[in-house]
């Protein structure tokens, strides 16, 4: 997949419904930490490491915070965004 997003300032993130529900139910400090990490990913989608489980697809990235592990994929094209599809707390 193209890494054409390397020069984009920021792109939006979209969350799978179950991820959104999980984040919503977390304590405020944990939500804030995840929010800051996702903002970093929106600003530079390649800033987080590649997820080991998806080693053949370098667009799948993993965010690690003190309380959660969050997986997202970088989607390019006419409507580029991050798709946050998994969270483990």
TrEMBL record:
<protein>
    <submittedName>
        <fullName>Uncharacterized protein</fullName>
    </submittedName>
</protein>
């Amino acid at each position: 997949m193209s890494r054409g997003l390397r020069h984009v300032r920021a792109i939006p993130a979209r969350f799978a419904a179950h991820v959104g529900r999980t984040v919503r139910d977390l304590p405020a400090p944990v939500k804030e930490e995840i929010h800051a990490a996702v903002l970093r990913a929106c600003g530079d989608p390649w800033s987080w490491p590649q997820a080991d489980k998806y080693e053949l697809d370098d667009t799948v990235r993993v965010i690690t915070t003190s309380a959660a592990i969050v997986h997202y994929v970088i989607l390019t094209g006419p409507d580029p965004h991050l798709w946050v599809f998994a969270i483990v707390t």
